Amino acid sequence: AQSVAQPEDQVNVAEGNPLTVKCTYSVSGNPYLFWYVQYPNRGLQFLLKYITGDNLVKGSYGFEAEFNKSQTSFHLKKPSALVSDSALYFCAVRDTNAGKSTFGDGTTLTVKP
Amino acid sequence: DARVTQTPRHKVTEMGQEVTMRCQPILGHNTVFWYRQTMMQGLELLAYFRNRAPLDDSGMPKDRFSAEMPDATLATLKIQPSEPRDSAVYFCASGRLEGDEAFFGQGTRLTVV
């Protein structure tokens, strides 16, 4: 079985400050981990993924995420937030033995000027 | 610029009517997913196909929903008869290999009155 948790429904940060959106997961095997972003009235867009290799993954728009196996976490980070980063963020996990991903409930990020 | 195309973008229908949503996956992608997004339930996987064969439709109400892939360029999701509780945004997504991310369409916003 696989599952993913995004413990925060909402994250608020000031523009220019660092941001973190949290994600923890559970899989029986090895994980593939993904972050997606959804802007209003749009589909989900891929940001970054962890498959294997370096634990620090860099993605689109200056976002990065760190895979932490011992803590089963894959938190999304950005050193300096922009107002335009305000959106709904989804973490997803797929067990390497599974054919489909499980998505978290999403975290709404609001960046205030 | 390859993208997943969904039609229609918006659909308003009366309860009891049949609704058909269409999806054109990205050429060369062998996996197609159907998701439903609502405020209450978040993002739910309804069904997915690999190489046009249905692999999992456990998330789909079988009595009224059906999903098919008549060919590699077309996936359909039908609801018959539709009910107000089916009102949601329905997303189609496609992907390639096991570790690959999913590419989402813009969604079909369905309103059943």
What is the rounded Rg of chain B? 13 Å
Q: For the residues shown, what is the average pLDDT of chain A? A: 94
- Structural category of chain B is mainly beta
Whole-angstrom Rg of chain A: 13 Å
Separation, N- and C-terminal Cα atoms of chain B: 36 Å
Q: How many E-type strands of chain A?
A: 12
N-end to C-end Cα span of chain A = 41 Å
Summarize the biggest pleated sheet of chain B: 7 strands, mixed
Shape call of chain A: globular
Portion in beta strands of chain A? over 45%
Number of helices of chain B: 0
Quote the beta fraction of chain B: over 45%
- By oligomeric state, this entry counts as heterodimer
Mean pLDDT of chain B: 94
- Low-confidence stretches of chain A are none
**Helix share bin of chain A:** under 10%
Largest interface: A-B, 19 and 21 residues
Give the proportion of residues in helices of chain B.
under 10%
Count the DSSP helices of chain A.
0
Low-confidence stretches of chain B: none
Tell me what the structure shows:
The complex is a heterodimer of chains A (113) and B (113). Chain A has 113 residues and is mostly beta strands. Helices cover 0% and strands 53% of the residues of chain A. Chain A contains no helices and 12 strands. In chain A, the strands form 3 sheets. In chain A, strands 2, 5, 6, 10, 11 and 12 form a 6-stranded mixed beta sheet that branches. In chain A, strands 3-9-8-7 form a 4-stranded antiparallel beta sheet, with no helix packed on it. In chain A, a hairpin with a 4-residue loop joins strand 8 (64-68) and strand 9 (73-78). Chain A is globular, with a radius of gyration of 13 Å. Classes of the chains: A mainly beta (113), B mainly beta (113). The interface between A and B is medium-sized, with 19 and 21 residues.
